[in-house]
Amino acid sequence: MPQNQVNQALMKPRRVQTKCECQATLVATLDDQCHVLGGAARQSGAEENAPAHSIGAHLDRFDVAWLCPFCGRNTLRTFYAGAITAA
Ligand SMILES: [Zn+2]
Question: CA-to-CA distance for 3 and 80, rounded, in angstroms?
Fold first, then answer.
């Protein structure tokens, strides 16, 4: 049904991605309020869970912080909420 398709599109998690200093790819899945649902890190074909959380998720520009499982750094990146598209 068309109505269901629209609702699913709105509910679809959004995703942000960045590079850690160690060149691992850090990914976070966000809900509609830009709260982090889950984080992951990938490097050389390996994927690990990466603890992640958002800071100032109610703002237009908010930060996502990851704890990189490969190098142990806390990596903080700023994202513009309006620029994030559905994953
Ligand atoms: Zn790293």
Answer: 29
**How many angstroms is it from 8 CA to the middle of ligand 1?**
33
d(CA 23, ligand 1 centre) in Å: 6
Query: Ligand 1 centre and the CA of 70: distance in Å?
Result: 5
* pLDDT in 10s for each residue of the chain, 87 residues: 445 454 445 556 789 999 999 999 999 999 988 999 999 999 999 999 999 999 999 999 999 999 999 999 999 999 998 887 665
Which residues, including other chains, have CB under 8 Å from residue 43's CB and lie 6 or more apart? 22, 23, 24, 25, 70
- Domain regions of the chain by residue span: 13-83
